[in-house]
Design goal:
Length: 463
């Protein structure tokens, strides 16, 4: 070929290189591509991962969406209550073995009774969770009258029996006994919720007389029957339920403070007139046993918690339950849990109660039915207040009130109404329109029909 045909080639090549480099003919450096990275990622370093702030924001939004789902409260109530009950059964068996052997009973005696109560309570929970709201409201008056009748029977000699100085038990025959005051808590919640809901529908709660009467007199009747038996702990929980109902009803501050002041004055008088209650009050924060050993239980509860460490000594390895700590399977079972399961176990129990309390508040706050709001708020107040009083006494922050830890301590009379109350919360969580729709979609038949509607029909000749 002629020489002039190939002469322009070097000039064209120089122009192309000049355009790519952007500077007078300098040859661009060729970057090596890292293995496993795309050309776009090689040109934009760090673009394969979003910034940390964006990732954290994305995780927060995803957690918030998950937390705001319609069935969150339903699953929290069901899951946390069942976990507390199962863990309570394990701890009752571990904490009560030595006590049973001391009484010449089989080692699993208390566990078998608690397991039977838990089985019956599970049935009550399922029944309550499936009952409509109207039926719950219909049961309020019969339940209140039955509780008052049984609490009156307790004061009749020969029928009522005293346990640990408190005459609030009725023996049913054999090893079974009943504490009617535990059912009085549930009765006050249902009856008070129905009463306040009817008054709110008539717009009567704006008047303080309708807000107090007859709720406060009936509550004082129950409190009087309880205090006749000397059960100060149950009276405290019943007072907390009354205050919770008044707060949910929108009681003004001065009215709320007035009722609280009267209750505090009566409680102080009852404490000062009883030497046993005064000794319990003086044991708050105690670090020694006292001159007469009056703070023995409080101090040994602290010993049990302190010896547990981070992860405890192991199930069944408690030392305090060998006669050192009174009532290890009832009032002070949280101390045994801290000794055998450590700080991790106690924090897990606290987290479960916190989840149950949050779910109850969420149910009460998101409903438009006044009865559901009052009843859910009353049940949440009952469970959380009793848990705080029990755990606070074990930690030495509150006086020993003698109340069990809900769903956790030994005692069928306390477990049965509490599980029925949890079933109430589950029923109220299911009544939410969004939760009802979500549960309907999760049914197998509905899901199959929905999927069939989504599938497009193919032409007859297509395979």
């Amino acid at each position: 070929m002629p020489a002039d045909d190939t002469a322009p080639a070097p000039k064209i090549l120089r122009q192309v290189l000049h355009r790519r480099s952007g500077s007078g003919g300098a040859r661009p450096a060729i970057k090596e591509r890292r293995p496993g990275r795309s050309p776009a990622a090689a040109r934009r370093p760090g673009s394969s991962r979003p910034p940390r702030g964006r990732r954290a924001r994305r995780l927060y939004e995803q957690a918030r969406r998950t937390w705001d789902r319609p069935l969150t409260a339903y699953y929290l109530i069901l899951g946390s209550s069942l976990l507390i009950t199962v863990l309570g059964l394990v701890m009752v068996y571990s904490a009560s073995m030595i006590k049973a052997l001391e009484l010449s009973l089989p080692a699993a005696y208390f566990f078998r009774k608690q397991f039977l109560a838990a089985a019956i309570g599970t049935g009550l929970l399922l029944i309550a969770s499936r009952m409509p709201v109207k039926l719950h409201r219909a049961l309020s008056y019969p339940l209140l009258m039955g509780a008052v009748f049984l609490m009156m029977l307790v004061q009749i000699p020969g029928i009522g029996h005293a346990v640990n100085g408190n005459q609030n038990w009725i023996y049913l025959g054999g090893p079974f006994q009943l504490q009617p005051s535990e059912f009085g808590k549930l009765a006050l919640i249902l009856w008070g919720a129905d009463l306040l809901a009817r008054k709110q529908d008539r717009r009567l709660l704006t008047q303080w007389k309708h807000m107090l009467v007859p709720l406060v007199p009936v509550s004082f009747l129950l409190l009087g029957l309880i205090m006749l038996g000397g059960d100060m702990g149950t009276a405290i929980i019943l007072t907390a339920i009354l205050f919770g109902l008044l707060w949910l009803a929108g009681a003004p501050t001065r009215l709320f403070a007035g009722v609280l002041g009267v209750a505090a004055l009566v409680g102080l008088m009852l404490i000062k007139t009883n030497e046993n209650r005064m000794s319990r009050l003086s044991c708050i924060g105690a670090i020694d046993l006292g001159p007469k050993g009056e703070c023995w239980q409080a101090v040994h509860g602290i010993y049990a918690l302190a010896s547990g460490g981070w992860f405890g000594s192991g199930l069944g390895a408690s030392v305090e339950k060998w006669g050192q700590l009174p009532e290890p399977h009832t009032d002070f079972i949280f101390a045994i849990a801290g000794e055998e399961l450590g700080l991790a176990g106690t924090l897990s129990v606290l987290a479960l109660f916190a989840a149950l309390g949050y779910a109850g508040i969420r149910v009460a706050g998101r409903t438009e039915d006044p009865f559901v709001r009052f009843a859910a708020g009353g049940v949440t107040t009952w469970i959380t207040a009793q848990a705080v009083v029990n755990i606070g006494a074990v930690l030495g922050l509150l006086p020993i009130a003698g109340v069990p830890l809900p769903l956790f301590s030994y005692g069928g009379s306390a477990l049965l109404p509490t599980m029925f109350a949890v079933g109430l919360l589950i029923a109220f969580a299911r009544e939410d329109p969004a939760a009802r729709a979500a549960l309907a979609v999760r049914r197998p038949g509905v899901r199959w029909k929905t999927m069939r509607r989504r599938v497009k029909k193919r032409p007859s000749g297509e395979r």
